[in-house]
Input
Amino acid sequence: MLPAANAGAFVLASLALIAIPGPSVLFVVGRSLALGRWGGVLSVLGNALGMIPAIVAVSLGVGAILAESALVFTIIKFAGAAYLVYLGVQTIRHRHSKTRAVARGAVPPSTFRLLRDGFVVGASNPKTIVFFVAVLPQFVSYNAGSIPLQLGLLGAMFFVLALACDSIWALTAGTARAWFARSPRRLAGVTATGGVMMIGLGGALAIAGNKA
Output
């Protein structure tokens, strides 16, 4: 079983990392500005669920192999970046129709679609695997039992912390959007801003250097 001291140190290290806004935060804020609080929270959940394959892979030892494959890393990186750009472009293209939909009280995108989009973004971020491969083993006790189980527990802890912290960002950005929703022009503008953020994030991920 994972020692309490190791778990506590990992929580502190994770909180320090999560507190620094990164790709996940930018994605969540962009989606919240475009879709509101509920859309943002569901995007957070989907994005967090996208970590699960990486957690399982690292726990089983597959993550170390993937982290060493430059080809796989690059393919996943560009696929995720392209999907983010696609989401951003679609958001900008349909910003006026979304504004009219809000005014009519129309039904927002389905829960499944929002979870799916978030999951694809989370699962296609290869740096998640690299992070888990590099960081999780540092907090494992090799005298405390099953290593895969300890790695899985650490991954689950990070999942919960990321879910909680990113939800705060989603609710904050979604609340700000509620003010913009009072004016169709402001709402169209903030929706477009969310799309631009996603396009920018996709571009940044695409041109980022190879794995360190």
The chain has one domain: 25-207. Residues 25-207 form one domain. DSSP finds ten helices and no strands in the chain.
